[in-house]
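Subgroup meeting minutes
Present: P.N., E.W., G.H.
Scribe: E.W.

1. P.N. recapped why we're keeping a running log of single-chain structure predictions: easier to compare across weeks, and new members can see raw inputs and outputs side by side.
2. G.H. added today's entry (306 aa).
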Amino acid sequence: MFQRILVPLDGSSRAELILPHVEHLWKREASELLLVRSVSADGPANGGYDSAAALVHERNEAESYLHGVARRLAAGGARAFTRVPEGLPSGAILDAARREGATMIAMTTHGRTGLLRWLMGSVADQVVRASDVPVLLLRPFPLPAVESAISHGAPFRRILIATDGSLSSMAIVDPAMEFAALFGSEIIALHVWDSYVFDGAPLPGMEAGMPIPLEAPLPSEDEVTERMARRLGPSGLKVTRATRYGEAASEILDHSFEHKVDLIALATDHHRGLSRWMTGSVADRVLRSAGIPLLLVRPTEKPALV
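Output recorded in log:
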């Protein structure tokens, strides 16, 4: 998953905030980095606009910028290459990933200040929805301080893998396990039940009057986390099982804050976006509040999980 990491950049410092996280990866895996900045000839439909000249200027500027970033990374030992594809950002990023054989895309959700094309729901959202490879995504805007191992120089010490129990949501398990194995991370296997009825009979450990999950198991009896732990077992990594009851995004965030998680891993889409776990809902809300990177995977087929 880390052999060839594509990093979309747009010339802004915000977009470059993903680079320290990528550095942790290539230093362990000797990954190749592919730095990409798209260019486009879009401009006024009239008024003497010279699209050809503008495109040449934008390409020269992009190449100069990417070469500068590549030199900085190379000084630290990275193998960095550059590409300047033509087209709108999301399509250019996805095309470059497929054409260049990228095994991961790593990017921020926002780039140049004031430009909507890098907002979640635009470029990053489109990339996540259509990418054939895992996407490491970072929201670069300031948030309340997160007590994370990354801030203390110990990258990705604890990774939370969150699922809703469906086979499609389980597609995140293998990519997250590969990520965790690279860093010797502890894994928290989290299953969130978010279907509720009010029956007035609290489960052990829940307060009276709280909404009760319909047919939800006790944490020690949760078959979903048991399957996850069984799948993760051969990795030799420490796995902690957890079951929470409530609204998915809130429970994922609360658990990540309480346990000082450094990375949240989610499958973002079930069947053509018809899932409560699709990006734009759970993953989007988690990203907006987490303050730590997300590893997102779009399932392309039913995963085999025993």
